[in-house]
Design a protein that fits this description.
Chain lengths: ~110, ~120
Amino acid sequence: SYELTQPPSVSVSPGQTARITCSGDALPKQYAYWYQQKPGQAPVLVIYKDSERPSGIPERFSGSSSGTTVTLTISGVQAEDEADYYCQSADSSGTYKVFGGGTKLTVL
Amino acid sequence: EVQLVESGGGLVQPGGSLRLSCAASGFTFSSYEMNWVRQAPGKGLEWVSYISSSGSTIYYADSVKGRFTISRDNAKNSLYLQMNSLRAEDTAVYYCARVGIVVVPGAFDIWGQGTMVTVSS
């Protein structure tokens, strides 16, 4: 079955830039989406179609794509950004949705 | 207010059945594709099932195929997940999630608060 690979954890100090990667063979063909999840809460969409930011999401959140890897970048990280982040996409046919394993962002 | 509210979770024995519901409000439910996503305790998100806006197209993750059935009643603004032959590994919070159309196409843009399913003897 198709898989998306994320690093389990990323740590940054406040004000620094955090980059979270997500790799998958079908990413050149399928859009990626990023969700933020805080403890005890439902996920929240932060990036759609690889690099688009929904209204209400701070400008410090951005997304990019290169080949089989997509990247979520958080510039000027704030304490409130500490959360789990999940990429999501689909297999090459677009039929089966898939989530990455998640990355825990720790703000030191 | 756009909202999804899940219900029907609980404790069930291995091999048992449970039916989850997701009530939609604040938007035209019949226009939107819907999904079920689950999260086992302390684990990541796992996509479970998809249903098209009309209900004519349905997909399942391999882990639930043949045991779970997704359905919807657009007249009642409701999404369902019938879960049979439940296993311990089905223990999770189950979320329903809407697929965006115009504003955030393709994204799971609205999520419910989740309902907990525990499979244990």
